Amino acid sequence: MPPGATKQTDQWDLNLEHKWTDNRRDEVQRKISLKCSPLTVLLPDSREKSYVFNLMDTPGHPGFSDEVSVALRVCDGILLVVDCIEGVTFYVERTIKEALRQKLKIVVFLNKLDRLVMELKLPPADAYYKLKHTLDDINNVIQKYEALHGGSQPFISPINDNIVFGSTFFGCCFSIKSFAKRYT
After folding, report:
1. Cβ distance 55 to 68 under 8 Å?
2. Which one of 5, 48, 62, 176 is CB 3.0 to 4.6 Å from 158, fit for a cystine?
3. Residue of 52, 86, 84, 90 lying closest to 164 (CA atoms)
């Protein structure tokens, strides 16, 4: 029976939100990733050239950090999703440390921007400082562990084009460049 299927019909319940990489029954029921799931995506660029991306969706819960460690061994780089409200947690720090140990390039996705406005009701200047503080914490962790592993990870910064902002709740993401291009 497919993971999102009902017991009576073995058909997908179209009223539920389905995620491409949550394909086990327990993942669908609990609405979290429990195991690494690979996903291959073919994406074209503006010049009609296509690129193959092999992605590994890993659990975001600290109890499943062994899944992340194993997945990092087959990666060329990582997209590290960080909650902009929670900032750098022990789990985020551990993931950065492991990525640097394996000399992987890191791109950060600062997630849940919507919470800055909707929950915390921060004015723009305060939201900026909250995001800056989170980025500073990430860069401090990188600086702390990079010396141990001899890597060359550039600082996470919009200038280095290695950060993306967004909200998975609203299904949007942007870099500073893409935002400026659309805004102009």
Report:
1. no
2. 176
3. 84
Residue 72 is predicted with a pLDDT of: 80
Element containing residue 39 per DSSP (H, E): strand 37-44
From CA 97, how far away is CA 148, in angstroms rounded? 10
Provide the 3-class DSSP secondary structure of residue 16: coil
The secondary structure element, H or E, covering residue 163 is: strand 163-167
- In 3D space, the residue among 42, 92, 107, 101 whose CA is nearest the CA of residue 72 turns out to be 101
Name the DSSP class of 15.
Answer: T
CA dist 5 to 19, 34, 84, Å? 13, 19, 34
- Helices 124-149 and 90-101 pack at an angle, to 10 degrees, of 40
Q: Among residues 60, 54, 6, which one has the least CA distance to residue 31?
A: 60
User: In angstroms, rounded to a whole number, what is the distance separating the alpha carbons of residues 177 and 161?
Assistant: 8
**Sequence-ordered list of residues with C-beta below 8 angstroms from that of 96, at least 6 positions apart, any chain:** 80, 106, 138, 141, 142, 145
pLDDT exceeds 80 at position 66:
no
Domains for the chain: give ranges and CATH numbers. Answer: 1-61 (no CATH), 76-183 (3.40.50.300)
Instruction: Report yes or no: 3 and 27 within 8 Å, Cβ to Cβ.
Output: yes
